[in-house]
Structure formats: C-alpha cells, structure tokens
Amino acid sequence: MSEQVRVSCVFVCHDGNGRILLAKRSAAARDEPGTWDTGAGALEFGETFDDAVTREVREEYTATPQDITMLGVRNVVRPGSHWVALVFAVRVDPAVARIGEPHKFDELEWFTVDALPSPLHSQLPATLELYASSAVGGR
C-alpha cells in the first residue's frame, strides 16, 4: 500500500430532469474496466473543489457545469489505495456532453437511477446513495 491519502472529486452529472450520466470504463481505465461509473478526478494542489470539478467535467465529458452541489464525503480504502472522495452533483447540458477522454471511456449514456446498466463500478452504489438522499437527486 502506498500509505498516501489522496483527495478525489467524484461527480454525478445530471440533466436536472431525473437522468444521470454514466461512462463505461475502457480496458485502459485505472481500475474495473468494463464497468459503468460516474466521473472523478484528483484534486490538484491549490485548487478549489469547484475548480477541480469544473476541470474534470470539461476533460471527461466536454461539458461546462451549470450548477455544482456538494453531496458529501466518503472514505474509500481499497487494496493499494486510500482516497477521501468529495461527492458532487453537477448539472450539465445533455446536448454538449461527449466523451472527452476516449482512452478512458468506451461509452457515455444517460440513465435514470431506477434503470441503471450493468455491470456497475464497485464504488457507484455508495455514490448514488448520497445522490439519491440529496435535494438534487431525491426530487
């Protein structure tokens, strides 16, 4: 284990009308290739949370956040890694969302939380619990 704790900004992109954006991880993904997941990225030194989320949403999905809401914090300890995951809901325009990092993702699609694809990334259910319990996702 690296014995280093890192901070990740996890984002559940949504359209404001009950749909969330999920990406299917490619064979080149850092972990769990072939699974569906929300977006995420490491917080860079000196960066605000909103700046990190904005940068990552633009990089991964070519979209600019229209609204960013912090949902909560998760402690994610897995073999070989330890992340403090700050979880956000991010409203984006579905018309502009595209795969911005084709080396990481094979597909990008909109789903409702009651009709999710399979298989899901192992961390996605806990992230979606935060989303569903929020004012944004709990509509």
How do the strands and helices of this protein lay out in sequence?
Layout: E1 5-14, E2 19-25, E3 36-37, E4 39-42, H1 49-61, E5 67-78, E6 81-91, E7 105-112, H2 124-132
Parallel strand pairs: 1-6
Antiparallel strand pairs: 1-4, 2-3, 2-7, 5-6
Describe what this molecule looks like in 3D.
The protein is α+β, with helices and mostly antiparallel strands. The protein has one domain (5-132): Nucleoside Triphosphate Pyrophosphohydrolase, CATH 3.90.79. 16% of the residues lie in helices and 39% in strands. It is built from 2 helices and 7 strands. The chain has helices at 49-61, 124-132; strands spanning 5-14, 19-25, 36-37, 39-42, 67-78, 81-91, 105-112. Strands 4-1-6-5 form a 4-stranded mixed beta sheet. A 3-stranded antiparallel beta sheet has the order 3-2-7, with no helix packed on it. A hairpin with a 2-residue loop joins β5 (67-78) and β6. The termini are far apart. The mean pLDDT is 95.
